[in-house]
């Protein structure tokens, strides 16, 4: 369920609070504000997450009944305008465009700081920063009237009471005019602050100008630590299971597989990391919106090549477990020409340990003092993501980590096991499927004979689906023969087992989502033009062909504007449907093409690293290398 901001209610407010969905008030132009008291939700009316999504004229407004939903609905009803999805209300202060739905054009937005010489106007969006009463989220209200000494606003999720005296606004905010005509609004909440107001206007006079970072700040630079004899010294603690497994896989204490790269690392600027963090959070929201759109338009699903028997389960997973992610990873190309996302890996994303532990330990071992470790907070964020899970009601609170028999999956699974245990859960690791059995009651049992109820997996969902494609009526059959080998589909598609990452991650992880995303957000600065068909426009820019369910870079082909094949990688997915994506090559730095990976915890940025390869395609054997963040000034002098 979506969560409100942290506004605390007084005893008087609680006494007069309205149940979720009850009308708090109506503006003079007829826009209704509803109570968002989630503690009073009627499960019969709102049985799943789908029921919380608000649409008007078939257009998605947001989650019922949060502050952003009201603002978007007011603007659409009164002006025909829709602003882009944001993760948090305070991020609206940085938006610089809004879409005119009727004319399908982008209109300029400008932000004016509290105290600006330009006052808010009717229809301006008043924005609070995160913190205090609006911890993590910020807040938004619509300005309905403006006076010298006050403004009036309309909003949702501020409190859960009726607007006083049946007035057409929620409250008044005191204003004061300074000696120079500067217009100030008072924030009555401790620890909170009003950032200012956002108005649809092309006039930038007195507006907040977002800094335009130098393109040089979005390069990736190769750096090298002074060499020493530490190359011969062990630096990973093999008494820790995950580190021992990593050392076994790498055949020693190595960050990369190339000895000549032992002291090399990559650096990015603080501005670049800020952009990566913002892009990660925004893109997660865009991919979630596109996932919802696909599931609302079943005619699109055929492009994803999912077994028809699984579609009801996918829809049910989305309805009940929207945004219940633990891990996911975005793959970016970042150059002075811009930042572009290739795809979203939110089903069994890899390289978390390399980013969250290995690159930091390597930097300390070789004595790097400058800059910050880009994965320093990743483990803590993963622990927090697990702690936010509220689905575990078993007395033993046991989560099973399922992995294949694979050296890379060994350390990845062990790293996640440590995060799960740090979050306060019991964790049992299951290697392969041979130790699993099925009880007479049809329960899946682990190697100790205990039932499996919650799973985090390194297996890809596609592996389980392949079994369905090979077995007729597999979903309809129920195996009770305890001597029969347990299949992956028996575990992951079992109605009595909850799996992370959820089944709906099949949609955003499938590259068929990329053309849908481009159609929903055409010319978005973070996206690449992508289509199911090879268009003349793509031929003119150069393009990349990708199988919709490919992994590890397999069966990807890069073709330039002259129809020259730049790179062609074989693999096991050549028979699958493919998409065509605009060519935006990875930057070549030194001997390598370098890809930025950002990692999330519960859908929010949690860290980053780089993967490198001498080919233009990152694959299973591409090395991870350390990534450090330098302040902008230091970075430019590197």
Please give a structural write-up:
The structure is a single chain. The chain is of the alpha+beta class. It is 23% helix and 26% strand. It is built from 14 helices and 34 strands. The strands form eight sheets. A nine-stranded antiparallel sheet has the order 5-6-7-13-8-9-10-11-12. Helix 8 (407-422) links the parallel strand 19 and strand 20 (426-431). Helix 3 (241-250) packs antiparallel against helix 8 (407-422) and helix 4 packs across helix 12 (513-520). The two termini are 47 Å apart. Mean pLDDT is 90; it is low at 472-477.
Helix content: 10-25%
Q: Sketch the major β-sheet.
A: 9 strands, antiparallel
Average pLDDT across residues? 90
Amount of beta strand: 25-35%
Shape assignment:
globular
Which class of secondary structure composition applies to the elements?
A: alpha+beta
In terms of quaternary structure, the protein is single chain
Based on CA atoms alone, the radius of gyration comes out at 26 Å
The parts where pLDDT drops under 50 for at least 5 residues are: 472-477
| Overall strand count | 34
Tell me the span between the first and last alpha carbons.
Answer: 47 Å
Q: What is the topology, as strand order, of the major beta sheet?
A: 5-6-7-13-8-9-10-11-12
User: How many alpha or pi helices?
Assistant: 14
């Amino acid at each position: 369920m979506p969560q409100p901001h942290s506004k605390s209610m007084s005893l008087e407010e609680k006494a007069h609070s309205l149940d979720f969905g009850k009308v708090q008030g109506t503006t003079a132009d007829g826009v209704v504000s509803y109570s968002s008291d989630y503690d009073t939700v009627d499960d019969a009316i709102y049985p799943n997450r789908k029921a919380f999504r608000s649409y008007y004229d078939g257009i998605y407004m947001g989650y019922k009944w949060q502050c952003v939903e009201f603002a978007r609905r007011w603007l659409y009803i009164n002006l025909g305008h829709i602003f882009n999805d944001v993760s948090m209300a305070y991020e609206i202060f940085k938006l610089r465009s809004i879409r005119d739905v009727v004319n399908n054009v982008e209109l300029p937005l400008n932000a004016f700081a509290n105290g600006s010489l330009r006052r808010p106007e009717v229809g301006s969006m008043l924005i609070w920063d995160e913190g205090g009463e609006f911890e993590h989220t910020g807040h938004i209200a619509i300005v309905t009237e403006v006076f010298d000494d006050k403004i009036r606003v309309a909003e949702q999720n501020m409190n859960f009471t009726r607007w006083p005296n049946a007035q057409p606004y929620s409250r008044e905010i005191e204003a004061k005019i300074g000696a120079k005509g500067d217009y100030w609004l008072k924030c009555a909440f401790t620890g909170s602050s009003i950032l200012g107001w956002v108005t649809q206007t092309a006039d930038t006079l007195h507006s907040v100008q977002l800094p335009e970072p130098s393109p040089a700040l979005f390069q990736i630079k190769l750096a090298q630590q002074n060499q020493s004899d530490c190359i011969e010294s062990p630096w990973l603690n093999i008494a820790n299971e995950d580190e021992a497994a990593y050392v076994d896989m790498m055949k020693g204490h190595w960050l990369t597989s190339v000895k000549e790269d032992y002291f090399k690392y990559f650096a990015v600027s603080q501005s670049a990391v800020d952009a990566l963090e913002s892009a990660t959070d925004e893109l997660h929201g865009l991919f979630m919106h596109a996932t919802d759109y696909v599931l609302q338009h079943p005619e699109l699903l055929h492009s994803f090549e999912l077994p028809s028997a699984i579609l009801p389960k996918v829809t049910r997973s989305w309805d009940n477990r929207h945004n219940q992610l633990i891990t996911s990873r975005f793959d970016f190309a970042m150059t002075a020409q811009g930042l572009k996302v290739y795809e979203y890996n939110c089903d069994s994303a890899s390289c978390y340990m390399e980013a969250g532990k290995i690159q930091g330990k390597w930097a300390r071992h070789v004595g790097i003092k400058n800059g910050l470790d880009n994965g320093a907070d990743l483990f803590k964020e993963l622990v927090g993501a697990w702690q936010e899970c509220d689905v575990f009601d078993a007395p033993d609170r046991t989560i099973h980590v399922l992995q294949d028999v694979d050296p890379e999956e060994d350390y990845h699974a062990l790293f996640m096991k440590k995060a799960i245990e740090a979050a306060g859960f019991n964790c049992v690791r299951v290697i392969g499927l041979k130790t699993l059995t099925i009880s007479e009651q049809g329960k899946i049992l682990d190697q100790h004979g205990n039932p499996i109820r919650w799973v985090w997996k390194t297996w890809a969902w596609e592996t389980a689906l392949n079994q369905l494609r090979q077995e007729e009526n597999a979903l309809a059959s129920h195996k009770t023969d305890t001597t029969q080998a347990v299949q992956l589909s028996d575990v992951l598609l079992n109605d009595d087992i909850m799996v992370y990452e959820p089944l709906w991650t099949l949609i955003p992880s499938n590259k068929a989502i990329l053309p849908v995303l481009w159609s929903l957000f055409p010319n978005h600065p973070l996206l690449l033009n992508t289509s199911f068909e090879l268009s003349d426009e793509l031929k003119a820019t150069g393009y990349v062909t990708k199988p919709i369910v490919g992994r590890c870079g397999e069966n990807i082909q890069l073709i330039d504007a002259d129809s020259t094949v730049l790179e062609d990688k074989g693999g096991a997915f050549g028979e699958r449907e493919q998409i065509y994506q605009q060519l935006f090559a990875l930057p070549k730095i030194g001997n390598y093409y370098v890809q930025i990976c950002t990692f999330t915890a519960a859908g929010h940025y949690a860290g980053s690293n780089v993967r490198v390869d001498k080919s233009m395609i990152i694959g299973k054997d591409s090395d991870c290398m350390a990534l450090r963040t330098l302040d902008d000034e230091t970075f430019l002098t590197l």
